[in-house]
Design the sequence.
């Protein structure tokens, strides 16, 4: 069992727009969710890389059907980004 503590409180994801001058940072949030591009400020990759996870699921679910896994990944990332946008405090 890992008993280490989080060194800092997690960011409040409902205030992303507020902390970005009133505009939801859609591109930045999308890139963070996707996770396939390393973000040095985030340190080690303890969290899942959702882009790779979504891609593996798309390939597994497609079977023999011709399928563009990257389109599936973009759709999932955009859906999650949209959800986070709707969580923003007014």
Sequence:
């Amino acid at each position: 069992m890992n008993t280490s503590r989080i060194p800092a409180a997690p960011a409040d994801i409902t205030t992303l727009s507020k902390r970005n001058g009133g505009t939801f940072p859609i591109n930045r949030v999308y890139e963070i969710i996707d996770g396939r591009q390393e973000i040095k400020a985030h340190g080690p990759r303890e969290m899942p890389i959702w882009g790779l996870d979504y891609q593996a699921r798309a390939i597994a679910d497609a079977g023999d059907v011709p399928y563009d896994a990257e389109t599936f990944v973009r759709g999932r990332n955009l859906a999650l980004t949209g959800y986070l946008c709707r969580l923003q405090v007014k």
Observations:
- The chain has a mean pLDDT of 78.
- Residues 32 and 39 are 8 Å apart (CA to CA).
- The two ends are 40 Å apart (CA to CA).
- The chain has one domain: 13-86.
